[in-house]
Amino acid sequence: MKASFVGSLAIPVVATAILAALVQLVVVILVPVVAERDAFARLKPLGEPNVTVLLPRASPTERLAPYADPVLAVSFCRFDLAAGPIRITAPEGRAFASLSMHTQAGQPFYALTDRAATQGVIEAVLATPEDIRALEAQDNEEDPSHDLRVTAPDREGFVMFRVFSEEPSLYARAEEQAKHLSCKAEPIPR
Question: Which of helix, strand or coil describes residue 162?
Answer without folding.
Answer: strand
